[in-house]
Amino acid sequence: MDALRQTLIPHEGKLTITLPKGYTQKKFDVIILPIDENQEKNALIEKMNLLMSYLPGKEPDITDEEIMNEIKDVRKSRYENSN
Q1: Hey, is 43 helix, strand or coil?
Q2: Are 17 and 6 contacting, i.e. CB atoms less than 8 angstroms apart?
């Protein structure tokens, strides 16, 4: 079953749904659920907090100079191995 989900804003009390070309059925079951904007905002905040929990909480223990030296070492070893 292919589902189509859209968030629409009514215009003059009407919603217009444009169906994709692959929807050739003659009948559709349409369910309209109002969106609770506070609930939607809270769900987004929860997702952002979860994402932030995966990010490091402090600066890395390696300096920019050490990072550049590692990059140079990798490039050098690749160049030497390709000859």
Answers
A1: helix
A2: yes
Digit-coded pLDDT (tens) for 21-77: 888 888 899 999 888 888 888 889 999 999 988 887 777 788 889 999 999 999 988
Nearest-angstrom CA–CA distance, 23 and 30: 14
Name residue, tokens 């905040």: 45
Burial 36-57 (b: 16+ CB within 10 A, else e): eeeeeeeeeeeeeeeeeeeeee
Both tokens of 26, joined, read: 């003659």
Output phi, psi for 5, to 5 deg. -120, 125
- The angle formed by the CA atoms of residues 69, 73 and 74, to the nearest 5 degrees, is 120
The residue extents of the domains of the chain are 1-83
Hey, what are 11's tokens?
């215009």
